[in-house]
Design a protein that fits this description.
Four copies of one chain form a homotetramer. By secondary structure, chain A is an alpha/beta fold. Chain A folds into two domains: 253 residues, 3-Layer(aba) Sandwich (Rossmann fold); 158 residues, Rossmann fold, CATH 3.40.50. Chain A has 14 helices and 15 strands. In chain A, helix 4 packs across helix 12 and helix 7 packs across helix 8. Chains in contact: A-B, A-C, A-D, B-C, B-D, C-D. Chains B and C meet through strand 2, helix 3, helix 4, helix 7 and helix 8 of B and strand 2, helix 3, helix 4, helix 7 and helix 8 of C.
Chain lengths: 450, 450, 450, 450
């Protein structure tokens, strides 16, 4: 993962503190519940971004200290007084397995570990942070939310898009909410930053702590996002069935579309997990449909050799294909696109091309769409969600703001909000993940006619 | 289930025997393996079709004996000599969970219980019963097929459509195959009948035994088909996720299409199992989209009341909707339908209608399609598959032909092929299944403007 | 299933009515919600117990009318006024998948279909029907219980054992509860009968309707109990893993204990579903450990032939084994049994016997115990639970009492409580289920030295 | 993870090479299949063990270069000629989910990516590497093993214990096997080292590459072992059911034993994932049963407060408990321990102690034992297995030996065999994992009377 100079600048600036944390943490004081040595954390340690020796030596030569993040975790002193502090939680954007695990653990840790008594659940994303939007926030009670992680979705509701930060800070200020947890993707975290800046402008003490969420696992600097293992698992299950369908017929071709507008992480991991995928098309890897090196010829060769094929296309390949085949997208009488679905397009396109080359292949299409993201989290995700939520609470209670919680080299850490919202991760065409994909599928490394 | 006079006639005729079963069954002779009392079956008992007292009394008044089927199971005497008999197995039509359980158990019972030594697996459905079609049959060996039921799909491959019975009997005769197991839907079983008649015409001794297969559970006279529990389970899981998606947004509307061209059994059972479906549209129940009693008004009322909705539409509703809204189906420049997918149609249609009534509802669509049928069978189906396969082997070895194996009032029985291929079962609009669906969904019983 | 004269007598007496049902059912009146034709049920039809032609002819000769049950379902007229009637629900005995589906649907149907407004949830089984037991009943509200079926267990809590009917009727009478749904096994249903008789004695109008529950599927006259498919599924999954363990080692022997104190239905169905079990020991089938035809010799032969074995033992085999090997059960210094676990006993016993015959077999043991019953119901069970609950509500509202709801030949019906509590179903050593088990395991039909 | 000086010494020595890799890798030459840029790996980069800034600065002050591992991955030059090289694969020790994924990918990568044509599968662990042990190795063919990862267990069989390295090298030498992949825990890897040393002594060119395997995730220096996510998932599922059982009764206490002889990683992660565990006992954390701060008092308090409890005990707590309560373990007449099962012991012990304090608690026990390790790998594990297998093949083909493949800070790397077999990882009582466990369970941090 290469770091831009802009991101490096933000990372070096570090995490702002709303004020000196002067209160002893209740985590230390609980006595029987938590032994003193449990918080014997080297609070001021940091985790270095790149563990590569080459990077270490490059910086050493330049006399440049290594780039690092603050470590996440409970602090001995906290800033907010739990008895009088109000917190709020908001979930934004599309669903992702584990949302309810995060919400649940935020509430339990705020409540049981720190003693925070008023926790607001904001309804339907940032919409619910605007007065008069119709849905009032409700109080989140540890007992009531005990079992919400058994269900997928979000207990709070969600929505897309940002609202005016002025309205949102008005809303928070009116209710004396001083901690806001924002669970969402990079758009959401940019909104979180805007809220924090508006509060600062007013001199309103507000901690904004983000928990990064994306089904595509493509948030910049974030090595792992929650819910991804679950989505891979569900998608791999769909691929298992699709493989069986392809094999059942002579020249059976199954086409499966997997979520991922900008990046192909989900499609790639699910394909590797399945082990049965023969062609994987993702937005990071350019390909052509036609010509001697094009995908069609490769598919034809595969059918002649093995008699069936399973093709996975990531949602975001639409752009690649539309630019190459703009005339072929179905249009209505007025020239408007009837569908912008890369799966349906590819199905039609493949069907007619197969006819040209006289292979009697039956192209069938599965679009699991939302199915890969709406079920409960698998245990590995559930554990990760709980850890992130714990770290988010510790960060907020210590008086930190403008950060997201994440891991770096497996170590929990705080990443400055500004740094994390600068662009996205994409599958590296020269990295080990894509190489594994090529090994698993056996597809040509380049499907381009030069 | 009402029986037509034609079907009654076929049922009364009974199951033909290829000749007198004169050989003692090895099942009796195995000694240590099977104690004598195990086969102490009243072979000549029968099971009455209708267990209703009203039907009993109606027939009693008419002096009409009750309509009944022969009971399935091992017979003391068999017709085919296991040492010299060759059997073949063919799977036809679309996939269905449990196909491999049936194939596996046919092979194990033929081989281990009877000692049949040559069992052919026919490739890709009836296509593989035609000389020169490209795929030769292969021998099925008990060890090799031990674990095939861990996978979905069909180990043998499948195809749709029938071939010329003359060619198929040529193929069987050339290989001296005297028992043919046909696993497939009503089209397949009509093909099976044609094969049997062609063999009879030639005086070629051939037993044809069908195992009814349909993901839609709609074969006439057959109260339960294998794989259906599994399909319901998979579909219900998709609905669980869809419900979560609908609830996550204000005015969230999820539309899910479920397989079922002629009948809505799968959509209905999955909806009842889910418990979260608000509208269920199936081909058996007429409905209108527009007008004061139409589906749209009901959906609008639901959104106003509850703020989200989950709509399930069975594949076969296309006809209902096309006849009413023929102008709205997307056509290309030449006037051809661009898609004939009831889900995509309904999605578009609902979207524009919701706009008219000014409800800002987001219609999102999931089409799990083949996913509900391509995974391995759940245990209850797996057990059922094995029982059907056992009964099929017993029937064939005893010299019976032109039958399918099924259950009637839970009792395994033989149903004459002619009777079973006469039409399909459909969801009874006045029966308890549809009533349960109405109770579960809470949708209006009639969405029609009179 | 053979019917004792005593049971026949109870069945012929039929279901008592608390009084004439004079009120029109709201199900008819809802109008838009339920079209009139939906309740056009032939209310007075009945279902015949045996669908066998032989039984039909036997009775015909004796001039004996067929034995039949009343059909279950909604009636046009009801007895209880929904506006003023209070109902209560109690769950008793061990857990069973689907309990929450039953409770949920009872509440939804009472509330939404009939308009009953006060529904009590009784805590911890019959204990909660005794004043001063510590746990008060709570009101069941349709919204609150919407999602309880996503979890296993019982929302109400449970306990074993019966209480004094005098106390329980006191409790019901004090709260003016006139309908009681008892979800439990035969002990529970005998308790239900005692409650009903006590109420009758006092002239207190009380409808008692049972929903039969048993993980063992062994309630007399009841062809299918809810939760069984789920338990089979969970047990089969454990067997899948056990088979893999057995195969992984040379002479690997895995022993798995499956619930079932009196009957081996669960062990048998799970073994058939698994397809990998080599020996199945259930209480219905006598066997000996030692001697030339004993289980040990058979196991030894299997190991010599195949190198591994999977053995399933039903809990209830303890008796068989203790009577034969009374000296071998581990006892402490005072001569008390240290464990009464047939699995641990068999493990020890097999280990030492294998040593005698010098087979270096490693006996390993899995006891999934409660695991097979505590997870949520699979969809086929969930549907069945909902149907039973609907029928139970219809029966109670119509003024019927002293019955359980069940199916007979797949038709929903009312079975008199007295008849259903007379003994248990057991696996028939000469029936098709045990035959399937023998075919699947390949074990000797008799493991007894005569 | 602290590194001992001994381990540091081995790490600094690096990975031995059998000779100069002079052959061009076929991965580069495949052309259409693998574009040149795909192998543009900085082969000589390394990954630093500790990413903590404090460690970086400590070493900087000491002028000590950072401790690092060689990066894993394909090399441009290889040592073994694929056309003439024979490889062998052996799986040792207890089962672990993903074993078949590793075996499958080893074969596919050796065969398809490098063109190795002779790959031996060794039967039943190191036993199968001894001439005359009874089970001959068989050739592994890519087609035959395509679907083995759909099943749990090991396709090759396994056994415990090491054999004489002299015999094993005899075996390998006789068959001209020059690459050996050893999949197993630290005992297995010590055996691997012995084999390698014996070969070196003879001057026989042999590459030994280990893939670390342990269900307990406790191999020294290895941050993640394959199969662990799956085991956590299966164990969490058992805990879900156990929680439901505990809640169903008044004073219900469920006790669940989870694998883990030396370490409590599995018990801990499963407990965190479940979220329902109230007490977690692992070997790393000392505790006492009795006394005012003992576990019993804490359990009693919990029951009084909440009425039910779920207790998880890791297998390895037996030692803790036996030393404290040596008189209470059940013994037979001769004074031998009848069982050494910590679960059964604790069940009995708790039962009698609860009686003393007059809480009518019912202690029930689930021992899922082997069930948590014998099912197929979840997708996240399956992907990880495939990556490890790829790295292992690349390492061996390049002529490296005496290493295991693993990840360090998420980067694939080679760890010297000597370093990896020096001790085990244990749950850090002061680290974040145990803190999460305390937060999730709410149990007292210390259950010890000082």
């Amino acid at each position: 993962m290469s770091i831009t100079p802009e991101a490096e600048e933000f990372i070096r600036r570090g995490i702002p503190l709303l004020g000196d944390p002067l209160l002893p943490s209740p985590i230390e004081r609980v006595g029987a519940e938590y032994a003193p040595e449990m918080t014997d954390l080297k609070e001021d340690d940091r985790v270095i971004l790149s563990p590569l020796l080459s990077e270490h030596e490059r910086r050493k030569e330049l006399n440049d200290p290594p780039l690092s993040y603050e470590i996440a975790g409970a602090r001995k002193k906290i800033f907010f007084d739990p008895r009088s502090t109000r917190a709020a939680i908001v979930t934004c954007g599309g669903l992702c397995p584990g949302l309810n695990d995060v919400v649940r653990r935020l509430v339990l840790t705020l409540s049981y570990s720190y003693g925070v008594q008023e926790i607001f659940g904001i309804r339907y994303g940032y919409q619910g942070l605007v007065e008069g939007s119709g849905d009032l926030p409700f109080m989140l009670n540890p007992k009531e939310i005990e079992t919400i992680s058994n269900e997928g979705g979000t207990y709070l509701g969600s929505s897309r898009g940002n609202q005016d930060p002025v309205d949102m800070v008005d809303f928070l200020q009116r209710r004396k909410i001083q901690i806001l947890f924002t669970i969402g993707g990079d758009g959401t975290q940019r909104g979180a930053l805007a809220i924090s800046r508006e509060a600062q402008k007013r001199g309103y003490v507000l901690s904004v702590v983000g928990i990064p969420k994306t089904i595509d696992n493509d948030i910049s600097l974030v090595e792992r996002t929650f819910g991804f293992d679950t989505a891979v698992s569900l998608a791999a299950n769909v691929l298992r069935g699709a493989h069986v369908e392809a094999e059942a017929e002579r020249n059976g071709v199954m086409l499966v579309k997997i979520m991922g507008r900008q990046s192909g992480f989900l499609a790639t991991q699910a394909s590797i997990a399945s082990g049965d995928v023969n062609f994987l098309l993702i937005p990071e890897i350019p390909f052509e449909l036609e010509g001697p090196n094009g995908f069609l010829q490769a598919l034809k060769a595969r059918l002649e050799r093995r008699g069936h094929a399973l093709v996975v296309v990531a949602e975001g390949c639409a752009e690649t294909l539309m630019s190459q085949n703009s005339d072929d997208w179905a249009k209505d009488a007025s020239g408007n696109l009837i569908y912008d679905d890369v799966g349906l397009f590819l199905k039609t396109k493949l069907g007619s091309l197969m006819k040209q080359v006289e292979i009697p292949a039956k192209i069938r299409y599965i679009d699991p769409s939302y199915f890969v993201r709406s079920l409960p989290a698998v245990p590995s995700d559930s554990i990760f969600c709980q850890q992130l939520a714990n770290y988010a609470v510790h960060a907020a209670m210590s008086g930190r703001t403008d950060l997201i919680v994440a891991t770096c080299n497996g170590v929990p850490c705080h990443i400055p909000l500004e740094a994390a919202t600068l662009g996205r991760r994409r599958v590296d065409p020269e990295g080990p993940l894509w190489r594994s994909a090529l090994e698993t599928t056996g597809q040509p490394a380049r499907m381009i006619n030069d």
